[in-house]
Fold these 4 entries.
Entry 1:
Amino acid sequence: MLPLHSNSLARRPFASPLPLPPASLPSPRLDTDGRLSPKSFKFQKNRFGKPEVEWDKYDLWAPPPLQFNISHTSTMIACGVTLDLPIGIDIEEKQRKTSNNILSLAHRYFSPVEVAYLKTLADPECRQSEFIRLWTLKEAYVKALGRGFSGTPFKDFTIRLEASNSKQVTGELKSDAPSIVVEAVDDPGILMNRWQFALFELNNSHYTAVCMERDVKNPADGENNSLKLEVWRTLPFVEDECVTETDAVKNIIR
């Protein structure tokens, strides 16, 4: 689930409120309909700085296997939430301006294969767009790993496309949809196929990439590379709207 929040929360820090007392804790499952008070959540960071839910331990209550990741621009917040599986998400404005030349930035941060690909694009706007898409995918990947940019430098891996038979957002399968894969720079023959990706546009204004670990408990999904997502637009305390199959969400097929 990807609840998309308004800019009113863009600069609020994570809170670490006190947990609910044991008597008021919900049953041993994740409540997703608002019955689990936000005050029961506390947060911690892993050694690379990625926020995680910190659960208090009680004898008669097992914490849900909740994982999440957050990204934001000046106008939108994206939050990816999963059960059991690590997730990374990044959102970028399509018209984001860079202070340096695109190819200069690519040489500094991207793999040689990605730089060579960008050089083939003669149109400046197309090159800018592809640079932002690649950056968004790479950012989602390192965040899914839980290491961030410092723990997994962008130059150490290549993002590329290969033929696939499934869409990247919930819906009917399409045979011509590409699959996004990760390749190690030091050994290009090795694909890091533990991970699945989705890349799409939101509101025609933002690129969003999601990276999730494959669900080994469900081999069927792993075989067809299907990453099933629900996309929600959320105004906190006001409105929740599922926009998965609407014009607000557009798959990127290249």
Entry 2:
Amino acid sequence: MAVQWKPSCSLRSPRAPLLTPSSSFPSSSASMPLLLHMEKGRSGLSYRGRRFVVRSSSGAGSGSLESGWQRWWRPPEKGLGTSDVSLSDVLWPSAGAFAAMALLGRLDQVVASRGLSFTIAPLGAVCAVLFTNPNAPAAQKYNVFVAQIGCAAFGVLALAIFGPGWLARGAALAASMAFMIATGTTHPPAASLPILFIDGAKFHHLNFWYALFPGAVGCVFLCLIQEMVTFLKRNCKF
């Protein structure tokens, strides 16, 4: 609903008029009417050039809080009981995650003599991204490898500059965020690689080789398993 008002005096500013209701306006161009828009459920007053927008406070109590909470805590639209998700959509990604961790665990036995490990927490998060939502931007292969390599390198660099501690963690994480945003390669699991390197003394001897191992190398195996999971989800439905 649009209501017309006309200025009568200043609104805490010599150039911002106070609005008072009126049913008509002078026809001269010197006193052009200001248009106000009343929007239900919102409150406040804003000024844009020669136009004011007024939002009423009616209905802005519990209704607004409830709608804000629903936007913040939105339940999933899909689940096992819906027509969009079948049992095979749940089983194959879960089986893929099991196979991935089993393979990485077997590789751990190969490299254990060198004090290395493939089974790291970030690769568990990569499994969740790759197997549950393979079409998401974070699951695209380019994003996975560029973010994994770049963020791991920032962890090595931060430790070399600041030494172990909170400053290195904060600087490495901030640099990783900036890197992913600037390159358009957002991949959330990669953000944990710098923290893992700074706090994990067993990786320090890798130096900048940490940019490739175990994160990027581990993702090669995970991406191969993801292709198998995608094939099974597409061709073996039940």
Entry 3:
Amino acid sequence: MRHDNRLIVDSADYSRLQLTQESVTVDILDTFLWILPILLLPEPHSPCLRIVTISSHYPSLDFVSQSTSVLGGVYGIVDCDTIHDQLALYKSLINHHLKYFRPVEKPQEFQYMKWVQYHLKYIDGWPKMDMNKKNVSKIRFHKRHLLVVEQTITFLSQMFYIVKNYGKLSFFEIGHSYITALMTIVIFSRSVVTALGRYRKIARYFVSSLHLYHYKDISEYALQTHLLVHRLSHYYTVYLISLVVTGMLLFNITPLYNNISSGVFNSPRPENMTFQHAVYLGLPFDYTTDIKGYFVVCILNWHLSHIAASYFCTFDLFLSLLILHLWGHLRIILNNLKTFPKPYTNNSMYTEEENQVVLLKLQECIRYHNFIISFTVMMSNVYDVVIIVYYLFHQVTGCLLLLQCSTLEWESLSRYGPLTLIIFQQLIQVSMIFEILGFLSDKLPNAVYSIPWEAMNVTNRKLVQVLLQKSQKPIQFKAMNMMSVGVQTMASIIKTSISYFIMLRTIARD
């Protein structure tokens, strides 16, 4: 049996794949039945048809058999005794127009990474990876700065509308403009960050160095961690991108539906009826009663909503991916410490040769820990202001959204209910992801102390002391070195928002 030519095939399709010396036949169901799971499920660890050579993708998977379960995905093995068999299999797949079987050679080729790239490029939040090329797109360079200018103009226009209509509209009507203006502040802060060079540097560093794909061949446990984080990242990406589409559609379709149901498009138009909009701006023309002005602002609002959804969901998605991969690195270093080699020839002390091996292991652990700490500091320098603005936004907007939903009218619930759920779940999920990073880092000191340091020589004991001192400092994200990001801060914000909501509801009723 030659491992170099073995192919991993999902068990769901294992029974439908027949391999012979001359040809390969694959029973493919209707195109719609297999294209959807291929797009939605992670590769190559999903129950859809995914085939990959072990030698070119996961060399450590020689232990996989048909009864082996890898993170919920059961695989079968097809033996290719000759290169002809392997080429025949690929030829059959190509004939069926299945272009998804090419082995992944870099992190950008994963499906969830492609989605992240696509949505970040819309807001110019994905940097150019190949910096050796001089032909960097000037249009892209200008786009991220134009987005900063666009959000500045949008915020000023919203404030002009609020000041102009202050006292003319009810608290619930003007509250919508308060919410959209606060969202614009968050979008502005994130557009500024994406325009900075240090953000683009950390994005390149994530793809080129931090991504667990680069560490899958270190050990079997590193491979399993990569598979776990890969699956979590994929489904998390699908979830957040669905929120981008859902939020944008609901925010714009709801006022359109209300306009249609109220009859403002009828001729003649009912008296004292105006057009509803997703975002109200202070503009030099009438767009609440004039049909031409309505369509101009309606199209503009679709663009602004897409930008807002991308900055809120996709920006948080990329930050969450950074945390998930850091979490994976912490799992690997904890496993390295738990499986630290013990004395082989002597039960009490390492031999001189063993001390040399231990020295290399300790140096590797220290370098790995420094790598994790340095990236955490780098990430803190990029995202600290964004996190503070984000938490302040939740503190104020949470109570306003609850206040808008408190009327329990269909119009308010349909318009602000989904937005309220999306905003609060964004707060919860970001805080939870940061919390699991801190929770895992708290286990490092005990893991370091549990290695057999008493059996080492003096030099290695000093290295253990250095590693122990470094590990006692928790890997915790602090915005501006003063606000801890985690579950406790999240709970405090939610409780305060509810308290302010009760107070504002009482004022609004009076």
Entry 4:
Amino acid sequence: MQSLQNTVKPRENIPETLIRHTQTAAKVMHPAAAKWYDRRDFVFIEFLVEDSKDVNVNFEKSKFGFSCLSGADNMKYSNEIDLFESIDQDGSKHRRTDRSILCCLRKVMSGKSWPRLTKDKAKLNWLSVDFNNWKDWEDDSDEDLSNYDRFSEMMGNMGGEDDLPDLDGADDESADSDDEKMPDLE
């Protein structure tokens, strides 16, 4: 019986093109999944990359670039976007968390709505609208915002459960003053 060491020869049966492909696959950059939403003065883009490192964000006047490494296998991500409108490079920022990188792009023309993030109308499969944060801010008025602030303050001033009235006995079938006998239907 032949020994196993003599029958298996490393890399002998593997085509050289497959070896090169496997070695270069680790170096290929993939686009990171991202969500975006629009506000009066800013456009926000969140790149959904967990455990990111070596994050590089490049703010240009009409272009935006993002790249990073992720995970133990150092998967490389890279995105580049030709923006719908110009941004203020100095007023734009980004913040990294364990689960994503949030980029805040300051608009040059504050108060102008962006119907899309990209200059071209092309659909990017890695980019979607963040409907959880989307707000139709064009219809907002200062009065609506002040009403919201007052509502938030009122909710903050409300007490906890100890301040709720005693609801024991609410299911009693006792007669209320407005419980009158209904006339019979004819």
